[in-house]
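Example 9 (inverse folding). The structure is encoded as follows.
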């Protein structure tokens, strides 16, 4: 599915950075949007009503009730989106690029350099795990009210 988007984006925007950035945006937006929508719609209506009955306006309810209550689920969506964006950029590099780790895998496969391919795949796995670990640590540090289960 991503390669179809990328082919159209290359036709519209060229092979430069603009098409890659837009492709990353298009691949990362749905997980974040769905997580945010689900998180906000799952907030107990009583929390909003209680804040309103205590005199909070719309922005105070948003900043002090809705946003903190939905932030843990939004961060989960961000973690999913980063994974999607990472696989998308590697795929985009495999399709139309002259540099990057995805391009290195394709180039190594053309010249039967199995050792380079294996190292590239291991590096992709390690960097993906490090990205997820960093986001998890960020979430644990800044969203201290979420469950740790």
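The amino acid assigned to each position is listed next.
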């Amino acid at each position: 599915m991503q390669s179809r988007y990328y082919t159209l984006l290359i036709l519209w925007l060229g092979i430069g950075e603009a098409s890659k950035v837009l492709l990353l945006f298009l691949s990362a937006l749905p997980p974040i949007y769905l997580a945010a929508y689900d998180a906000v719609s799952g907030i107990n209506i009583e929390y909003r009503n209680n804040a309103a009955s205590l005199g909070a306006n719309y922005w105070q309810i948003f900043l002090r009730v809705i946003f903190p209550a939905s932030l843990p689920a939004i961060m989960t969506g961000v973690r999913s989106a980063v994974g999607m964006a990472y696989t998308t950029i590697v795929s985009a590099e495999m399709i139309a690029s002259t540099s990057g780790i995805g391009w290195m895998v394709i180039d190594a496969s053309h010249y039967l350099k199995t050792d380079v391919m294996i190292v590239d795949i291991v590096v992709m796995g390690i960097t993906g795990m490090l990205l997820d670990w960093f986001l998890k640590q960020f979430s644990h540090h800044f969203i201290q009210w979420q469950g740790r289960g």
